[in-house]
Write a structure and sequence with these properties.
156 residues; mainly alpha; 43% helix; 0% strand
């Protein structure tokens, strides 16, 4: 009887250890972000960028949702769902458009939208999502997808 009891305890412990051990880190897209894999080219705002922003920045996080309070001219839900409104949103700190296609199509790495999700703009305190919210940021491949979308001319 004691042997069976020890076997059960060891089996439960082994299963618990296996379940709590993280898988191999391959720097791939996390499972929760698999639905937001951005293609290598022909990136579409309405098919690729908008759904990701709505989930990651709007409905999932609540930060830019319909119920978010506009305190300092924050990006609002209606701007997330409209390409022109998103691109023309001006930052309260600098007055820069999030994406000025005349400038940023040639230099997408300078677009405030890209810089904000990458590292914060004009400083690291403006990174999205802010670190103190303890929310998962966009994955690096998604951030690069935003940059490629801008570089392709920010197509619909």
């Amino acid at each position: 009887m004691r042997t069976i009891f020890m076997f059960i305890i060891l089996t439960v412990a082994a299963v618990g250890l296996f379940m709590s051990t993280p898988g191999c880190a391959d720097k791939g897209t996390p499972p929760q972000d698999a639905q937001f894999v951005i293609p290598d080219s022909n990136i579409s705002f309405y098919n690729d960028i908008q759904p990701m922003l709505l989930a990651k920045c709007g409905s999932e996080s609540g930060c830019h949702s319909n119920s978010a309070v506009d305190i300092e001219r924050k990006l609002q839900y209606l701007e997330l769902i409209d390409k022109t409104a998103l691109m023309n949103h001006r930052l309260s700190q600098t007055g820069d458009k999030l994406v000025d296609i005349a400038i940023h199509e040639r230099n997408p790495q300078l677009a405030p939208l890209y810089l904000i999700v990458l590292e914060g703009f004009p400083n690291e305190w403006d990174q999205m999502p802010p670190y103190w919210l303890n929310r998962s940021p966009l994955h690096e491949t998604q951030i690069e997808g935003i940059k490629r979308w801008i570089g392709e001319g920010a197509k619909d």
